[in-house]
Write a structure and sequence with these properties.
Distance between the termini: 12 Å
Mean pLDDT: 84
Largest sheet: 5 strands, antiparallel
Strand content: 15-25%
Structural class: alpha+beta
Order of helices and strands: HHEEHHEEEEHE
Low-confidence stretches: 6-30
Helix content: 25-40%
Length: about 170
């Protein structure tokens, strides 16, 4: 993979900053802290057009209410419902329904420094995956975090997410 052009990185960063203010509501997980000083390498996805479609749809769902078992904008989303909806609607990719099954999808495991927009990022504890999001770049990801919350953007560098990160998978080939 080759680095993302600087103008693309800046546009994505501006878009994520703008949209990060859209989410609201009570959550049980902490909100992202101010931007991390960590530098996140910019990788070009294998299929930039597909990744862009996935990201634009996912970011467009920021603010949609969380609902356990939800998998549509009308009903709300849980984390895996958001992921499966976005990939099915935008690139006709049918993925497993649970975060644990998504983590088991065949495909390369991705090191954090090699993340590309559109990769799936996983979180959990004691070796168990319990949460999934869609990586958008610059260390940020879109996800449906918890009951009472909404789909939002968060930073992988946030204390909760950094401590519970279990890995990533590339599903766009």
């Amino acid at each position: 993979m080759t680095p993302v052009p600087r103008t693309t990185r800046l546009a994505l960063l501006a878009l994520t900053a703008l949209l990060s203010a859209c989410g609201g509501g009570k959550t049980t997980r902490p909100a992202a802290p101010p931007a991390s000083t960590q530098v996140w390498p910019s990788m070009v996805p294998n299929d930039p057009q597909a990744a862009n479609a996935v990201l634009m749809r996912a970011i467009g769902l920021v603010g949609t209410p969380y609902r356990y078992g939800g998998n549509t904008p009308e009903s709300g989303f849980d984390c895996s419902g958001l992921v499966t909806y976005v990939y099915r609607e935008m690139v006709d990719l049918k993925l497993p329904r649970t975060s644990r099954d998504l983590a088991a999808v065949q495909g390369p495991k991705i090191e954090p420094k090699r993340l590309a927009p559109g990769d799936l990022v996983f979180f959990g504890s004691r070796g168990n995956v319990s949460h999934v999001g869609i990586y958008v770049g610059e260390g940020r990801f879109v996800h449906a975090p918890s009951t009472g919350g909404t789909v939002r953007l968060d930073s992988l560098g946030g204390a909760y997410w950094k401590d519970h990160y279990t890995g990533a998978k590339r599903v766009l080939h």
